[in-house]
Write a structure and sequence with these properties.
alpha+beta; Alpha-Beta Plaits; 2 domains; four-stranded antiparallel sheet; 4 helices
Length: 236
Amino acid sequence: MNWLARLDIDAQTASAHRIFDNYAWHKRIWEDCFERAPEAKRDFLTRIDHLEKMFRVWVLANRKPVQAPWCLSERFSVKEVPHSFLSHRFYAFDLRANPTKCVDQQDSNGNIVLRRNGTRTKGKRIPIVKPDELRAWLLRKAQVRRYDEKAKVGIPGGFRIVEKRPLEISPMVENHFRTKEESAYHGGVQFRGILEVTDRERFIETYQSGIGSAKGFGFGLLLLSPISLNKENPNV
């Protein structure tokens, strides 16, 4: 069971409750929009849209979110996502994600650092900013949503991007945040396009778990709208 909630919060209210970044939103929603369950994990997804003097916050969870005390009742809505909603073949999608790539570690001479067994060491993850690399990143996520280290296999995303339909890719925007341990930023990129479901079970898993990294910082949630395309030739 999935629940999708929407909260419209004015900037003044957010400031009064010291909600200044995506991490603060995630933390505040966990504390105020879910019934206390000490054993529960923060397994929900969020997305924060910046409107004029307003924030629109989306929350996708397998538990029903409740109205936060700092959100007016007329600005809060929640609905169960019916199984039928995820049974369509084509969707228009809107995704704000944190695309990254790993760069090789190098020594002072510019040589790639290798482990004793000759394999490359994992380097630093950096944001992807080039449009062609961003497109390739999203296409890979459709084919392999994540890699299962234990099973040594890729877990498919269960969908494909309909490439002959427009795919909008926004420029990367730095989303700064502060925790008790650090002050840093994630690179946020918005993707809009059309997808086709190729594996229903995997696609539902992808919808529930999100796409990409930094899911606790407002990234990875798929906003979907079912659409109809020419079934005989969906690419035109």
